[in-house]
Structure formats: C-alpha cells, structure tokens
Design goal:
Elements: H1 8-21, E1 32-40, E2 43-51, E3 55-60, E4 64-66, H2 87-94, E5 99-100, E6 105-112, H3 124-128, E7 132-134, H4 142-145, H5 154-168, E8 173-176, H6 182-188, H7 190-198, E9 208-217, E10 220-222, E11 234-236, E12 241-242, H8 254-274, E13 284-285, H9 300-314, H10 321-338, H11 346-367, H12 385-388, E14 391-395, E15 398-402
Parallel strand pairs: 4-11, 10-12
Antiparallel strand pairs: 1-2, 2-3, 3-13, 5-10, 5-14, 6-9, 7-8, 8-9, 14-15
Helix pairs in contact: 2-11, 9-10, 9-11, 10-11
This protein binds flavin-adenine dinucleotide.
GO molecular function: L-aspartate oxidase activity
GO biological process, one term: 'de novo' NAD+ biosynthetic process from L-aspartate
Cofactor: FAD
Length: about 400
Amino acid sequence: MRARGDSTGKEIEETLISTVKNHSHIRVFEHTFALDLLVSNNTCNGIIAWRSCEGKILIWAKRTILASGGCGQVYRETTNPEIATGDGIAMAYRAGVKLQDLEFVQFHPTTLYVAGAERILISETVRGEGGILKNKYGEMFMPKYHPNAELAPRDIVSRSILREIHKTDYTHVYLDVRHISKEKLSNRFPKIKKSCASFGIDITKQLIPVHPSAHYMIGGIKVDKNGRTSVKNLYACGEVSCTGLHGANRLGSNSLLEGLVFGYRAGNMAGKESGKKKKDLSPRSFKETAKSHLYSELDLEDVKNSLKSLMWRSVGIERDGKCLKEAIENIKHWSKYIISNEFSSPLGWEVQNMLIVSILISSSASRRCESRGVHYRLDYLDTDDKHWKKHIIVHNGKYDFVR
Ligand SMILES: Cc1cc2nc3c(=O)[nH]c(=O)nc-3n(C[C@H](O)[C@H](O)[C@H](O)COP(=O)(O)OP(=O)(O)OC[C@H]3O[C@@H](n4cnc5c(N)ncnc54)[C@H](O)[C@@H]3O)c2cc1C
C-alpha cells in the first residue's frame, strides 16, 4: 500500500480529517490534552482532559476508544513525532488496563543523521531500489552480516549498522543512492530528496548520513479482534494497541493497514454496543481540591533528555541484564519525585507518562531472558521457545506470562 510516492500516512491522515470534519455527528475538541481515563469497577466512563482555555474537564462517554499513537519519544533517537510520548499506554496502566509485549520496540535502520535535525526516515524502499549502506571508509558492509545484505530484516540491519558504528568509532554510516537514476529518485522519493536537500545534501551526488532510530511500539494495550481492552467500554486501536498481529517483529507497511482495519472494527463495535439511548454526555469543568507537593525547581527538559539518553543507551537495539537493571533503578529514582508531583501543563504530564512507559518497557525487557524478533539480549542470544514462547502481560504492577 503506497500513496503519492512516500506519503502514505499523510494521505490517510488527510482523508480521515476531512471525513471527520464533514460528519455532522462528530464533535472535535482541538488542542485538548487527554490526562486520564475515568474508570471505576473496571468500567470506563470517559476521560479527564485539559484545555488551556478551560482547565481540566470531564468528558463522559458511553464508549471510549484510545488511539493516541506510539511512544518513540522515550528514546533519544526516534522517527516519531513529538506527540509520541506514550500517553495512552501510561493512562491505561494507571487505570489497571492490561498491557502486552512492551519489550518489543522496533528500531528503523536508516534515519537521516544530521546533528540538530529531525530524524527523517529514509524508507526501506530506497534500499529496495538499490541503495547501498557504506561505513565511514566507504566500504559496503551488509553482505558480511546477512545473505540478503541491505534487504535483511529491519532488526538485523539496525544491529549491523550499530556494530559498524562501534567498529569504525564513528557516529553514523552512509546510504549511497548515487548510482540510481535521477528520474527514479525524484519520482519514487520526492519527500526524502526534498528533506535531504533542506540540509544541503543532494542525494544524486552525495552520500546520505544515516543511523538507526526507535520507530514503532509493537506492544501496547492488549485488545481482542474488535479492539476491546480488558476494561469494559474501553477500546484501543492503532499503535497504542497490541493486537498481536505483528508478532515480535513488525513487517514494514503493516502498521497503517492494522490501524485502518482495527480502527474500523473498534469504531463499529463501540457504536453497536453503545446503543441508541441518549444520555447527557456534555463535558463538565470541575474544581480540583487536593494539591500534592510541588517541586518548583524541576528542570523537566533535563529529566526528559536524561531519560531519552538512558533508554537509548540501555534499553535500545541491544540490551543486557546489567544495563536493564541499572536503567530500571535510575528511572525509579527519577519517578519518585516526578510522578508524585502535580503539574499544570502537558510537558509535566508527558514526562510523567514517559517515565511510566520507560519503566514498563525496561521491566518487560529484563524479564524476557531470550532474544526474539526486535528484542535482542546480548546475554541471551538465542530464541528459547521452550520457556519464552509466551506474552508478558502487565497490569497493576503484576507481570503475567501467557502462552
Ligand atoms: C516517519 C514514519 C514513517 C512511517 N511510515 C509508515 C509506512 O510507510 N507504513 C506503515 O504502515 N506505517 C508507517 N509508520 C508507522 C505508522 O505511521 C504509525 O504506526 C501510525 O501512524 C500510528 O497511527 P495512530 O493513529 O495509532 O497514531 P498517530 O498517528 O500517532 O496519532 C495519535 C494521535 O493522538 C494524539 N495524542 C497523543 N497523546 C494525546 C493526549 N494525551 N491527548 C490528546 N491527544 C493525544 C496525537 O496528537 C495524534 O493526533 C511510520 C511511522 C513514522 C514515524
């Protein structure tokens, strides 16, 4: 599935937005931050949200669907947009919803590596059209790591690049597309060509500096085939959810398809189940009473950057028990004064959510003592079907292992 060369996601987003805008029964709250789910007796009744013009509001709903995307922002290097701070996963966790497979984070091998620039994704199709990876010395290296060379699975290409970076003691490798015709590069990769040009890189004549980045959260809120979660009246779809469809290693291009299919199913089921009976569901403002201790001196940007670096270093493409343990200790320490604190704007809430998601990823990764798909343990190199062909499910601080 592809649209306008390399702009499939944008095309889907624009179609969805215009459909929603033209639908008389859909009310849109723009610039509204979802804070928490309203859950009692294992039943969801809506959300608490925040709007800069009104403060906190309650939005009641007969059915709630979480579609808040991924959590790539917990990593220093990521292809994900700034909003991908894992808010939905953290909200669900606080509400006791079951989460699954959180140790499986997919890293994309090739993102543009220019200091200070956004990590623009250089899609697989560039390698599919003949793009060649080269190290600092201009040497091809993929054939020595895998018989399919540049076309090996994402996790293998990411690990090979990482090794080459370590070996050459350099910050990145290169993608060479200079031998591909100018016409093909313009027709097939207009966005990539334009993005590189904006940083002074003419891909028809120059090598593209690339580096792996966190790309896609395979795990998430455990859902059934209709998007239902473990909490009544709550659904999830898209990257925030875990349908199990991607196994331990997602194939490229399947995420948008999954989002479309499961988004449709969840919406359909939520509509059917909510019935026709009208209920007063208008949003209400409310006054907060208790305030917890405020640490006025907190530098949230510093906490956020430290967390992202730690996750990249210790819970990244390659992991081991010692690094994971240290990461968990550090995150727990930061969480002590950040999570208990009261914040009044999205930055604080996002950092709280990022800490929760990071601890869940690290703890799941430390429990899975094997390598499988995108989860690669240096201290457990083999896939161990006998003990580990099962999911790690977490809720309310409890980890269950389910076949
Ligand atoms: C650069 C890049 C290229 C990709 N290319 C492909 C591809 O070619 N094919 C493919 O299949 N997949 C691709 N993927 C993966 C795919 O794009 C994502 O998995 C998919 O877009 C996720 O969709 P979503 O609707 O679940 O989340 P999103 O599209 O991320 O939408 C989440 C929405 O929730 C909102 N939100 C988040 N938190 C809150 C909050 N607290 N309150 C209110 N709103 C909130 C966000 O603002 C956003 O509008 C790509 C991903 C990236 C980053």
